[in-house]
Amino acid sequence: MDWEPYDYSIVYAEPYRVQQITSNWRLPFPVALVNAATFLLVAIFEYLFLRSFISWVISFFPPAGVVFYIGLPYLCVLALAKLKPDGKKVHFYLWDWFCYMIRMMNGDCVYYNWDKVSNNALEELLFVNKYVYLED
Fold this sequence. Notes:
By secondary structure, the protein is an alpha+beta fold. It has a domain at about 10-85. Helices cover about 50% and strands about 15% of the residues. It is built from five helices and four strands, in the order αββααααββ. The strands form two sheets. It has a two-stranded antiparallel ribbon. A two-stranded antiparallel sheet has the order 3-4. A hairpin with a 5-residue loop joins strand 1 and strand 2. The longest helix has 19 residues, at about 65-80. It is extended and about 85 Å long. The relative contact order is 0.06. This is TcpE family. Pfam families: TcpE (PF12648). Keywords: Membrane, Transmembrane, Transmembrane helix.
């Protein structure tokens, strides 16, 4: 029987789950911390920036408040669980993209042949006009 190494990457990819909130308060089921934070951030964003639009919609259709404040954040949590750009989780991908953009906008370095090179170390290339005559 051949020995096969066990792949532990599945264990490390498991999200951190919270069930005990305080010493006196406990949830009936564990909740992934990333999902709870995403839900709260989307709900807070809606409340702070889209409150007037949502209240206008609620004035015509009162159950829309449940859709906006519970349904939309939950759909965002489900969408973020499914998306994996470049094989990464979305929050890691966005952080890497943000760091990359800061480095590129800073402009203190350039990349040549996958190596980071400082702008100061680059030599200026000079092209001289030389004529080449081909023999007939």
